Structure formats: structure tokens, C-alpha cells
Amino acid sequence: MAIFLPRFISVLLILSSVVTAQTNKNITLGSSITAGDLSSSWVSPSEDFAFGFQEIEPGNFLLAIWFNKIPQKTISWSANRDKLAPSGSKVELASGRSLILTDPRGQELWTAKLSGGSPAYAALLDTGNLVVSKQDSVVLWQSFDEPTDTLLPTQTLGKGGQLIAPYSEQNYSSGRFSFELTTGGNLSLYTTNFPLFDSLNSDYLDYESQGLGLQVVYNQSGLLYLVGDNGSIRTHMFSEDQVVSEDVLYQRVILEHDGVLRHYVYPKGSAGWSVKSFAPDNICTAVLQQTGGGVCGFNSYCQFGNDSKPHCSCPPGYSLLDPNNEMGGCYQNFPPQNCQYPSNEKNDFDLKVLINVDWPLSDYEHFPNVTIDWCREDCLDDCFCAVGIFEETGDCWKKRLPLSNGKLDSSVDRKAFIKVRINEDVSEKSYRKSNRYLIGLLGTLGLTNIILLVVGICFCLLHKKQNQVSSGSKISGKNSIRTFSYKELDAATSGFKEELGQGAFGVVYKGVIDDISGSPTFIAVKKLDKLPGNADKEFKTEVDAIGQTHHKNLVRLVGFCEEGTHKMLVYEFMSNGTLSDYICGLPKPAWEKRLQIVHDIARGLFYLHEDCNSQIIHCDIKPQNILLDDDHNARISDFGLAKLLRPNQSHTYTAARGTRGYVAPEWFQKMPITAKVDVYSFGILLLEVICCQRNVRAEDNEDGGFVLLTDWASECYKMNTLDDLVNGDMEALANIPKLEQLVKIAMWCTEADPNLRPTMRMVLQMLEGIVKVPDPPNPATCSSSMATRTHSEQLVSA
Fold first, then answer.
1. Residue range 123-146: mean pLDDT, rounded
2. Are strands 130-133 and 139-142 parallel, antiparallel or unpaired?
């Protein structure tokens, strides 16, 4: 049945609300709220809504309106979603001006743009609408006219009005989807040209408004519909929507980060919001971007779940670009097929099958009337082909990267063949490739030139051999590291007399040598006498690569010795010992100094993973391998036997390395090893530094159990008892928000699934406050931090 809502009734409702607010809780000129003052806010007469600052991340605030009487304090509107306000910022109803948000230095961050005249007062109405009015009650500005992502009952959306979804569940800034009533009267729900906000593709909802829409109305009964020029309802936003029942306390409509428009209700006596309606019915199949990655980003595919939410997945051989953003797309985590010699690489690849999956707009070739086997083989032979799609009608499509608009749905009814690399011996392929280049070169030379070339190669090899056996005082021109003789290091350490400590593969001794200027310089000599079976052939290659690393948070490799069974690494000497001794000594190191050390280690690991010539996975990050220089700056050491990745590698397979208690679980699950193993170890080390406690310690009780610091921290986070972690550390207790931030980072780093862990780049950004730290996905739910000795030993061994 058609429902009519004349416009003057909406106007009367709004004016009536303003008058009510004016006689109850007007906000006078000069009134202000300061970010960080949690007791300060402006509330509506019924106290159902409040206006003020909500802390989104430590020290950064959102100026917002929220549901005030429910535990979730759900935000319905915000002013500065794309530029958070630092602690100490102030919002003020300024006399003769407007409602203004300024930072602690007085710089304007946001202002309510008044329609004309000077404000006399402001009021937060019981509808959740914040208004700024003149003395005669004429509204100069209202939040209902500038919605962010949410509509509230009695709110309307006029021509040109729009909702823009948040970027993610934890990030309130503008995201990738928009709901708009255009100036031409058309109703649109579309993806945006992020980070711009113009339309990127045609609507993914067909509302058939045909340019006749006047306004979108969200009435008190919970119906959301488009009103035409004649006042009649042209279309309902939600199919088969019904009036909200009387047992509902609150309701709202929100365009969420995943692009779905949802109607939420909060029933009386309930513990939270529940979804009443949503649109579209399946966003995974509704969105088809001509440009852009689609709902889930490039190289990903979307499946709509029973929870009315799209879920994004990476195909086999692909990983999330951002582990904290499921909708951010995926990357290929193996070297692609070599197009110069595709047939020779064919056996290095296989095809993994996905059912009912397709990327509709990524085709570059289409073949009708072929068999499934033909489709598979043709994709394997083609170096451009990343995915082959086969339909039972005999159609075969080949797709290249990046893949877009991926979807998994029964309506697709196709098979996807995902090309993945099965042979990770990249060095063998590089060897074959270099041989081909050499053969090609020889084919272009005459006999005389070939003889000269061979003589030249022999001369270079002889010269290289002479360098290898020459005096240890010479410097390598490539790496600028010294090659020491055993005799030199025996003399430098006085016969390996003064022991500094022990590592996984040997003992470290203190020594002294003369530097280039002739001045005595202390060194640390690591005598490697417990090498694993395959370490001999890796030793020289890895020393060469590590010799090229230069970073202030890495201990510099001065040189090495390789004489028969004698293999030694020579490092610069660090005067303040290991981080292990520093954080566990008394008194506790200063809180700020510990924070600096954490940043130092993160910067060093980021350099190893992303900024040096060859990506290096340290494989043994722990406090004993972090050394402190004269100024207590942290330096990562003992990475002489780390795992190197070549430029075209993203992961490797290798035997387990590292120290019990710091080793990531994938080492023992036959999974590929990536830089995420260092991230895991860093997470454990981070907890040890901020808590000044060992990762595993025996508990003095009759059970003889162990406390695992990771379990304990997770439980403390869950129970909101983080003060227990720092055991009376007044400096840490004075900055609980920072402590919580660090614990959350550590929990993300120690996720069992490496795909959920952040990269060291992201860890560094979270530590520096550039990126907000989201809540960990699954905080520990164990009832006690105590584990039996047997269980604990299994965890430590892993």
C-alpha cells in the first residue's frame, strides 16, 4: 500500500524538536569540550545521545555523536573522520562565529558551515541531531544535513546528499563505497574512486528512481524509502521491509565498510545490535567494476556469508597485501613464470582448482568448443596466464594479473585453474638461464674471440683464487669486510680467553684489533663450532650479502675467518651487553628507554626485510641477540647464518632455525618460511621488553607449571588488567593507553597464522602511531595463565 509523507510534516517534526531542545538543554555561546576529558560531553534531554570526543587510538580523538545509554557507545555521526584530533584539542561554540574544532595549537581542524547569521545557541536533540540556531530558533546548521555513514529515524537525505562508508571496522575514515541521492534525483549505491569519492562504476542496486526522487526518508517506524516529487513513495530501500516493533529501543541505518547498507535494531533487554534488513542481497555478485579491484580488491575473491557479510579470500599461492584488511587485495607470493623461456619452466608450475570462482573482467583470450584438459594445458603453456576458467559449455578463458571483481557463488558455475609455482629452486633456474645467455653469447663470437674470452675468464678465476688465500689484512672491494686468518683471531682474543656469551652455533669471545688508522678496536669474535650439516656451503654466500648491510640498528660485521674447519664471524664490540641482561636487571630500565629499544629493533628488522640489497630473514630474534651500544641503542646481532631470499623470492623452505620459545609455529608445519617468522619472534620480544620479564618462567607452585608471557598478556588484555603485566612499574602505569597499544601489537605479531601477522613495515607504522592498532582477532580465552609442565614444554619446543 502506498504511503504518503508531505514535506511540511517533516519540517514540523524538526522544528518541534528544536523548540523542545531549546527549552531543555541548550548549549550556550562559549561552551567547549576538550579532547581527553572523558567526563565532558553534551547530551540530549533524554540522554539517549551524547556529543563530544571519543578516543579512536591512543592520543587521537574523533569528534562525534553516539548512542549514550548502551555499552557500545555506537557512533552515529562524526565531524573529523579523515583527520583525528590530538589530545588537548577543543570544540567550542564560538560567539559570532560557529561550532569550531581546533587542535592544541589553535589550528582549525573543522567548522560547522552556517547558512547565514550568528549563532545564539546549540542543542543536541533527542533524535541525535546536533543543531546550531539563531536567537529566533532558525536553524543555521544541523548534523542531519551532513551525515557520515549513518542515518537515524526522522532523518532525510536530500538531493546531493550521500553516505560514505568507513574504510574498515576499526578505521572511521572515508572508505570505498557510497550511497547517494544525486542532484538529478537518481538513487545510487556504488563503489567510489578511492581515495577520491566520485562514482567508479554503475549502481549495484537497481532502484528504478528514474530521476524522480526528491528525498530519502528514514521514518520513526524504521522504514527507509525514496519519496518522489508528488510526495508518494517510489521505492523501499529494503525489500519486504516491515515496521519496527515496539520492543526496539534504538535503530539506525549504516553503509558499512564492506559496501552493504544495513538496518540495525537494538531490542529492549538485548546485549547489542542485530541486523533487521540489508541491501544488496549479495554484494559479491552485485558489484562489477569496469576499473578497480571490486569488493575485495585485486587478486582476491568474494563470498557472501550467512551473516550477511562478504568474506574475502586469496587464491592458492596468494597472500593478503595487508593482514589487517581482508578487503585490501592479495599478491602473488611466488616468482611468476618466465616469459622468455616459458616452455622450460612449465614443469615448475601446477594448477590448483577452485569451484564456482571467476574474475569476470580479467580475460585476455577466449576459446569456445574446447575440452577442460585443453584449457588447462594452454594456461600452463602460456606465461601470461595466471588463471584459466572453464565452463561446461566448452568455453575457456585465460586471465592475466591483476585479477578483478573476484567472486565465489553457485551462480558462477565455472572451474578456475590457479597457476602456482611448485618448484622453488630458483637458483637452478637462474643457473640454466645464465647458461643460455653464455651459449647465446658464444654463438655470436668468432673462434679467436672465444679463445680470448676463455683466457680472460681463466685469468679472473685465478686472480679470485689468489685473493682468497692472500693475507687476511686485505679488504674485499665488494663488501669492505676483512678476511681474517685463524692465527690473527687467535692472537686478537689472547687464545680465545675472555668469553662474552654463547649462541646457537658457538661461543663469542672478546678481542682487540688495529683498525685502518692503526688504533686498537674492540671486537666480538663468534667461533662457529656447532654448524648444521648444510651451513658450510651457505656460509660464504651469506657473509658476502650480510657484509653489504649498513644500518644503525644492526651490529656491523667487521669480517670473517674461513680456514678449513675454522669458521668465525667478527663483529664490532657492544659495550653494554645484551638486551636480555638489561631488561631483567635492577632497577628496571626507564619506560621511555624501553620504548626506544623496541623502535630500534623494529627499524633494524624492517631494514633486513625490505631495505637491504637481499631480503634477510634473521630467524633467531631474541633478547640475547640484541646488543646495546655505548648509548644503549639497540643493535640486532648474530644474523650471520640468517636465511637470505633472492630478489624474486618471497618465501623459502628450510630446516627449523631459532631458539625455543621464539620460534614461529610454521617452522614445524611444513609451511613456507617468510619474514613473518621474525615478526612472530619480535612480538614475543616486545612483550619481554615492555614487561621486563622472560617469555617463559617456572611458577612456584605445587604443580610445577610454567607461565607463558604471551598467554598471560592475552589474558590480561581480555580481562582489562594490563597493570598486572608491569608489576608496579609506575612509568608504565602512567601510560596505560600506550601499554595497551604495545600489547595489541604483540598479540598481532604472535598470531599462529602468518597471514594474519603484520609486516615489519606495518609494525613500525603502528609503533609510531601512523596506523591505528586494531583489536586482535581472537584474544586468548583460557581461564588461567598457568599451564602444565608438559603442555608448556611442547609450546616452548614449538
1. 94
2. antiparallel
Do 685 and 798 belong together in one domain?
A: yes
Of the candidates 789, 417, 731, which has an alpha carbon nearest to the alpha carbon of residue 589?
Answer: 731
Give the phi and the psi of residue 676 in degrees, each rounded to 5: -65, -15
Residue 12 lies in a domain: yes
SS3 373: helix
Structural domain includes residue 289: no
> What are the grid coordinates assigned to 345, written together?
619452466
Question: Would the CA dihedral through 600, 601, 606, 611 be positive or negative?
Answer: positive
Please identify, among 573, 595, 622, the residue that sits at the C-terminal boundary of a domain.
573
Q: Which of 620, 638, 678, 711 is catalytic?
A: 620
Long-range contacts of residues 335-342, Cβ cutoff 8 Å, at least 24 apart: 335/421, 335/426, 335/648, 335/649, 335/650, 336/383, 336/386, 336/401, 337/383, 337/419, 337/421, 338/383, 338/429, 338/433, 339/383, 339/384, 340/433, 341/433, 341/436, 342/381, 342/382, 342/383
What is the bridge-based pairing of β-strands 60-67 and 85-86?
A: antiparallel
CATH number of the domain residue 181 falls in: 2.90.10
302 lies in a domain?
A: no
DSSP state letter for 329: -
What pLDDT digit, counting tens, does each position of 377-399 carry?
999 989 899 999 999 999 999 99
* Residue 620 annotated as catalytic: yes
Report pLDDT for 209. Answer: 56
Pair 151, 77: CB distance under 8 Å: no
Whether 297 is in a domain gets the answer: no
Instruction: Say whether both 556 and 625 belong to one domain.
Output: no
Are 632 and 772 within one domain? yes
Domain of residue 511, residue span: 470-573
- Last residue of one domain, picked from the residues 281, 297, 332: 281
Task: For residue range 76-101, list pLDDT tens digits in order.
Answer: 999 999 889 999 999 999 988 899 99
d(CA 758, CA 514): 43
Instruction: Count up the domains in the chain and report the number.
Output: 6
Instruction: Please identify which residue in the block is written with the cell numbers 568474494.
Output: 302
How many angstroms separate the CA atoms of 414 and 667, rounded?
A: 36
